[in-house]
Design a protein that fits this description.
There is one protein chain. The chain is built from 27 helices and 39 strands. It is of the alpha/beta class and about 950 residues long. It has an eight-stranded mixed β-sheet, with helices on both faces. A hairpin with a 3-residue loop joins strand 37 and strand 38. It is flat and about 95 Å long.
């Protein structure tokens, strides 16, 4: 059913979700057209499940039942279904009830809820997903509580309710368990929801990276083409599962030594992963065949989709719809493929030819196949292996967010490297990145910073430096190039985190040592004076100097510089061995090597140069102990691999990023901050107000609220905007002052004069009628007629520091909270600081202290300090408003006068719009297509 066939149909309730086992299902409202599906679904439910649902034997649904369960008003009676392949696998419904338990309409705010899940799909998390979505629907319709009657023996359903994290009451009445759930989200319910999201999405990626069987669809008989290349790479990688080739014209049993079939159905055995390499116009048939065969996931190498223009984008959206209708997940289209080096899998379902990357500690995700090739080559040249690799192409379904979910608790991955052109859902990305960065480094190189005309990557509204700073607040190590991505990843994968910024420098070249020293200062590090070992230094001298530095309490990291010897008596292997012996003896500090024309040293220092062996999980340990190394990785017998760099600037940049990340980890361990609760916040009232304001606003349109509506919305979050009264004439100004009380301010509100006190549009401290009339006359004589100036009168507030508080939704960073001083400081000099939303109390305190003009708030040159705790509270309240309501896309409070006691918001503008189809609030859902 569509909105066109039934205008009341709530299409925005439709959502794709990942279930507990990694498969997908579609949740949508039940309609009058679902009668046949409902009957078929009910026939497949066991008698026991039917008994649990209806408290009596109920073998079949009557016509009256079918009518009741498929006809809803989507307000007081709602039904949702979870579907796979268009067929129901689970249902949930609510009926609004009054205090007497009988059917009711609003304002009654309680509803009875009941579930039924097909037995074959129980245990997959279907009921939990349905509860999240029906709960969100109920809140939207003004329902605050669910009531449910459950038989005591139905322990699975009782667990669904009790594990949801909502506040609840439980009693035993008339032989059944009576449960009442308060639907107001709690910290516990949100934590439960996000933990389920992480497990489900991680499992869905695991099914793609660790399949038990793989079929390549589209293998040419000649051995040429993408499909044949993918098959050879799978075969040559030593994949441990079953491998099949599919070609509709095959006439022999084997292709490239692999069992071949004309269709995937003919395989006659389960297929977990299908690699599709057929022309775009034949992909739908291949997907349908895979779905009917029960394939769990797809890697679509085929091009001709979103990268090729509007027609290709439409084809891509239809591909995602089709894939998800079968409960599958998709990497691609236009993908380069996936690699998993785990010894029990050894999967190379990509276009990367043999040899496959060795096993290592780095996980790598790219959107671009070309960048993926470059990164794989760079890691191979420098002797570093991978745990897993995903090049997602057009990223139509599986994205970097999904891979972060997988890497979060993947014991084989210690460092996450991502090349991204867009963040997709920036709120979710920063949330996942922050959580992942708390346990392992997340390094991101982001393309599309300056998008050319016509390029598919959208520009950001915030300056690039600001976006980088915001990502760093989430713990993300943001680098500018793919070279830096590799440089930083190598150091983090092989070395411990530095405990501070003090850097020891030693080597056999004074000039190279000075360059390294200068590079450290440029990166904000604290280098010690370089130790020049002279060109006569032997490997033993390097070892002794490095040993001294590593056991010294005066430094936190060491950079070793090396140039070639004149003689041949000190080969690179000897120097590498000496350095590795020192590191093995004192393993608590990171070491990086800068070399000049010593290519052999790179290999000798890497894992490839030693005797590699499998890498067990590496723990970064407690954040309070940044020097913790964890278990040994793919090392030679002499010790850990030591990253080497051909330029001092590159080595120091990598060390500096490790220093900053270590500082972030320690700060996180000391005080992660909290998002405070305020008892006077009316979240439900604000939601109702926003719904009313947006009722007649078209999707995609932006509504600028009137002053009154803005004040009312902000008041619901405890933000009081000082009222103003219009003054279209001098007499009106006098009457307004009589209402507000002297002293007053007279100011213009015309857009071209707003907040421009320098143009004379503001007159302050008017203490009586004569002063007010004189100022009114001066204002209109100088700047224009009252109709142009739109003057207003406002009561005076205590003098203080004028500041600006803003929040905006940025496409590259998500919801952002900003602060600066009003006037020249922020407008001309750009002295504005930013934090991600939701801001914690720690974020708010840091925000006001991070601008260069912050001393003006704290008693600069003998002035009185202002009420910074009140300012921090204002910031936190605004952050809560924007975080709670994605409809709020922009807020500007200007000026905010911060006095010795209290803050006064003199003016506010608010912009709202319908929230995006996908966000990071509400029930978990996959990105829409």
């Amino acid at each position: 059913m569509t909105i066109e066939s039934d205008p009341s149909y709530p299409a925005h309730w439709e959502a794709d979700v990942v279930l507990r086992d990694g498969g997908t299902a579609r949740i949508r409202p039940i309609t009058t057209e679902d009668a046949g599906r409902l009957v078929s679904f009910y026939e497949q439910v066991s008698d026991e499940s039917k008994y649990y649902r209806f408290f009596a034997p109920y073998p079949r649904l009557s016509d009256r039942d079918v009518h009741r369960f498929t006809h809803h008003d989507y307000v007081d009676r709602v039904g949702l279904a979870a579907t796979i392949g268009g067929e129901f696998i689970g249902t949930v419904r609510y009926d609004r009830i009054g205090a007497d338990g009988r059917p009711a309409s609003g304002p009654a705010d309680e509803a009875e809820v009941a579930f039924l899940v097909q037995d074959a799909h129980q245990g997959r998390g279907v009921a939990s997903a349905l509860l999240e979505h029906i709960g969100a629907v109920a809140r939207e319709r003004g329902i605050r509580r669910f009531a449910a009657e459950v038989l005591p023996a139905n322990t699975k359903m009782i667990k669904v309710f009790t594990d949801a994290g909502y506040q609840q009451k439980r009693s035993f009445e008339d032989g059944s368990v009576h449960l009442t759930l308060d639907l107001e989200p709690t910290a516990e319910s949100l934590a439960v929801q996000r933990a389920r999201e992480q497990r489900a999405e991680a499992h869905s990626v695991q099914r793609l990276l660790a399949p038990g069987s793989v079929a390549v669809v589209g293998v040419s008989r000649s051995g040429a083409g993408v499909g044949a290349a993918a098959l050879r790479n799978l075969r040559d990688s030593g994949f441990h599962g079953h491998l099949y080739a599919v070609n509709e014209a095959v006439t022999r049993d084997l292709l490239d030594g692999v069992r071949a079939y004309r269709t995937i159905e003919a395989i006659g055995a389960p297929v977990d992963l299908a690699v599709i390499a057929v022309p775009a116009d034949r992909v739908p048939d291949a997907v349908a065949a895979c779905g009917e065969h029960g394939v769990q996931g797809l890697v679509v190498l085929s091009a001709g989709y979103g990268e090729s223009g509007p027609a290709g984008l439409a084809r891509q959206r239809e591909l995602v719809r089709q894939v998800r209708s079968y409960g599958m997940r998709l990497i691609g289209p236009n993908a380069y493929g996936v690699i998993n080096t785990a010894p029990e899998v050894e999967l190379n379902a990509s276009l990367t030819p043999a040899p496959m990357p060795t096993r290592g500690r780095i996980g790598l995700f790219t959107q671009s196949g070309a960048i993926g090739i470059a990164l794989l080559s760079a890691l191979l040249r420098r002797g570093e292996g991978l745990s897993s690799f995903v090049s997602a192409g057009n990223r139509a379904d599986v994205s970097g967010n999904d891979i972060l979910q997988y890497w979060y608790d993947d014991e084989a991955t210690d460092v996450a490297l991502l090349y991204l052109e867009t963040l997709g859902n920036p709120r979710k990305f920063t949330r996942l990145a922050r959580r992942t960065a708390a346990v392992k480094p997340v390094v991101v190189a982001k393309g599309g910073r300056h998008s050319p005309a016509g390029h598919v990557v959208p520009d950001t509204r915030l300056p690039e430096a600001t976006v980088s700073a915001l990502l760093r607040q989430a713990g993300v190590i943001r680098v500018d190039t793919v070279t830096e991505l590799v440089d930083v990843g190598l150091l983090l994968a092989a070395q411990p985190l530095p405990a501070g910024p003090r850097i020891a420098i030693l080597g056999n070249s004074e000039s190279l040592g000075i360059l390294t020293y200068d590079a450290c200062l440029t990166q904000g590090l604290r280098p010690l004076a370089p130790l020049d070992l002279t060109t006569a230094a032997a490997p033993a001298d390097f070892r002794a100097a490095l040993t001294d530095a590593l056991r010294s309490d005066d430094c936190d990291a060491v950079v070793v510089t090396a140039i070639p010897w004149v003689s041949e008596e000190a080969p690179a292997d000897d120097l590498a061995g000496a350095l590795r012996e020192a590191v093995a003896e004192y393993p608590g500090k990171p070491v990086a090597v800068v070399h000049v024309e010593l290519g052999e040293l790179v290999e000798a220092l890497s894992a490839v140069g030693g005797v590699p062996h499998p890498a067990p999980s590496r723990s970064w340990g407690p954040v309070a102990d940044p020097a913790h190394r964890g278990p040994a990785g793919p090392l030679s017998a002499a010790g850990d691999s030591i990253p080497s760099y051909p330029a001092a600037e590159r080595a120091v940049k990598a060390v500096a990023e490790a220093v900053r990340y270590g500082q972030w980890r320690r700060a996180l361990a000391d005080d992660d901050g909290r998002v405070p609760e305020y008892e006077d916040i009316d979240e439900a009232g604000a939601a109702d107000r926003l719904a009313g304001l947006l009722a007649d606003v078209d999707p995609g349109a932006v509504l600028a609220l009137t002053d009154w509506d803005a004040r009312e919305l902000l008041a619901g979050y405890g933000i009081r905007v000082l009222p103003t009264l219009p003054a279209p004439s001098a007499d009106a100004a006098v009457r307004a002052a009589g209402v507000l009380g002297y002293p007053v301010a007279l100011k213009t509100t015309a857009p071209h004069l707003r907040h421009r006190a320098d143009l004379g549009g503001v007159r302050l401290d008017l203490t009586n009628e004569a002063e007010l009339r004189r100022s009114y006359e001066e204002l209109t004589d100088a700047l224009g007629k009252p109709a142009e100036l739109q003057p207003v009168v406002q009561a005076m507030v205590a003098r203080g520091v004028d500041t600006v508080v803003r929040s905006v939704i940025d496409p590259a960073a998500g919801a952002v909270l900003s602060f600066g001083l009003a006037g020249v400081a922020s407008e001309l000099l750009g002295d504005t600081a930013h934090r991600l939303v939701p801001a914690t109390d720690r974020d708010a305190a840091g925000l006001i202290r991070s601008i260069r003009t912050a001393p003006l708030l704290f008693g600069w040159r003998g002035s009185d300090p202002v009420d910074t705790p009140a300012l921090e509270e204002l910031l936190l309240r605004l952050s809560r408003l924007v975080d709670d309501h994605p409809e709020v896309i922009g807020v500007s409070l200007e000026p905010v006068v911060v006095a010795a006691e209290g803050v006064s918001v003199l003016s506010a503008t608010v912009r709202v719009a319908h929230p995006p189809a996908r966000g990071d609030l509400g029930p978990r859902t996959l990105p829409s297509y």
